[in-house]
Specification:
mainly alpha; 0% strand; 9 helices; single chain
Length: 211
Amino acid sequence: MFLLNKELVKYPLNLIVHPFNGYWDLKYDRSQKLNLIISFAILFLLALTNILGTQYSGFVVNLFNPDYMNSFMEIVYVVVPVLFWCVANWSLTTLMDGEGKFAEIFTSTCFALIPLVVINFPWIWLSNVISMQESAFYYFSNSLAVAWSIFLLFVGNMTVHQFSPSKTIGTIILTVVAMGFMAFIGLLFFSLVQQIISFVYIIYQELVMRN
């Protein structure tokens, strides 16, 4: 159990520092089951970081009203984009001779999110003791975390599918476009369902009033 706990912490931190070797090991030399466990743990920690950040970040940098914070939506903001990315990327790379399986795409994507946890989590508490002038360090750290995650996502995508750098960039752009299309279809579907429910409810009210 101690070795497992050590592996859960040591390997992800090693991957973000040595992404090329780390993602190669992730694809070829490691247990897929253990990778999935770590991936779900990363998603959980990122969702927890978002929730705590919304609730407890200092007023200098916190743009949200904690009274209106919805924990469920904070989880959705993490899980849905990751699922959209994985589905869109898997769908496209299947047509482009990519070698990555869906599970490998999912794990490589989750591992790319580690900087968002490692960098942003300490700033939840540090943001409570900084001044307005020092908030520049907060925003710089957030930007660094995002840039680092994008780089890891690029390396992970390239390694998992065994693409060239140029093909990886093209795939990422197409994946983002596909995600937008999926989001549009999803919103359209839920809007249609809402209209159907409203229509059925109106008919029900008419029948009840006539009786």
